[in-house]
Design a protein that fits this description.
- The protein is of the alpha/beta class and 294 residues long.
- The chain contains ten helices and eleven strands.
- The protein has two domains: 6-134 and 279-293, Rossmann fold (3-Layer(aba) Sandwich); 135-276, Glycogen Phosphorylase B (Rossmann fold).
- The protein has a six-stranded parallel β-sheet, sandwiched between helices. A five-stranded parallel β-sheet has the order 8-7-9-10-11, sandwiched between helices.
- Helix 1 crosses helix 10 (281-293) and helix 8 packs across helix 9.
- The two termini are 12 Å apart.
């Protein structure tokens, strides 16, 4: 039997080509589903009533109310792709949100979210999906190379809290220049970080689940990445990704090592290239998707 057409649906406040926080995830999933032999189409706010949908943005700011989604997205034809950290203190992980997604099949980027959902809703269909960056992210942006050197040392993006602010302040006290990138997604994010020397990922929540979505684009671009030690996905060994994982108190030192030793940064990027070129990723995607559809 032929695989069904899969509709990848981005829920947004209004229909626009301007990239949003979930765009890179949806485009990456689409890339690997196509390599795995699935026919896909990507749309904004269009949930097909009698066809298979994978939906991003449920419960997010600007998305339709949850009750409206329940009316339009029939569970037999809809899969929700959860991007929230279930065990975190995020206001988006409300009781209403968890109850709603428990009524659907759910794909998730992290085994730890899957475990948290199944612990509470043992009868729901929920499994991890191997989220990997679309290689073409490396070339879908334009950079203004006119500004003179020096390049900013560290690029950081995300909501600031006390622990993030403290680390960035430490870097600045050590003489590192920090580029704060705000509300830039998709190719806009690429252009913003391309002229920096490395990217930094620091947890916002105590749940410490790896913020994989924010690393997709810099990975594809070949940017060195320093990340706080994380609870990692299970289907893919991200320890082999070239990302430098360090404890919070060691993050500034790890940034310094990559900045001061170009050979270490180059080695990190080479590891990333080997990691992304793994020929097994499409088959892993295919098996995961078939398992969800069975």
């Amino acid at each position: 039997m032929a695989n069904p057409v899969i509709n990848l649906v981005l829920l947004k406040a209004y229909v626009t080509d301007e990239p949003s926080v979930f765009d890179d995830t949806a485009h990456s999933v689409q890339h690997y589903l196509k390599l795995a032999g699935f026919d896909t189409r990507l749309s904004c706010n269009m949930i097909y009533p009698d066809a298979l949908n994978i939906i991003w943005g449920v419960g997010a700011h600007g998305a339709p109310p949850l009750e409206e989604i329940r009316k339009v997205a029939r569970p037999e034809f809809s899969i929700i792709f959860n991007m929230e950290q279930i065990s975190s203190s995020s206001a988006l992980v409300s009781e209403e949100y968890q109850q709603l997604i428990s009524e659907y099949r759910v794909l998730d980027y992290s085994q730890h979210n899957v475990a948290a959902l199944l612990a509470r809703f043992p009868n729901m269909r929920c499994q991890e999906f191997p989220l990997l960056p679309k290689p073409l992210f490396a070339g879908d942006f334009a950079v203004d190379w006119a500004p003179a050197e020096p390049r900013p040392d560290v690029a950081f993006w995300g909501v600031l809290n006390d622990r993030r602010k403290a680390l960035l302040h430490t870097l600045q006290l050590q003489g590192r220049s920090v580029q704060l990138v705000s509300r830039n997604y998709g190719k806009n994010l690429s252009a913003a970080i391309a002229r920096t020397r490395l990217c930094l990922n620091v947890h916002y929540y105590d749940s410490a689940i790896f913020e994989l979505a924010r690393c997709l684009r810099p990975l594809a671009m070949g940017m060195p990445i320093v990340s706080e030690v994380s609870r990692l996905p299970g289907l893919v060994d991200w320890r082999q990704s070239g990302i430098v994982f360090s404890e919070y108190d060691d993050l500034a030192a790890s940034c310094g090592q990559l900045l001061e030793q170009p050979e270490l940064a180059a080695y990190s990027v080479r590891k990333t290239q080997h990691f992304l070129n793994n020929p097994d990723w499409p088959e892993l995607t295919r098996q995961t998707m078939l398992s969800m559809l069975s």
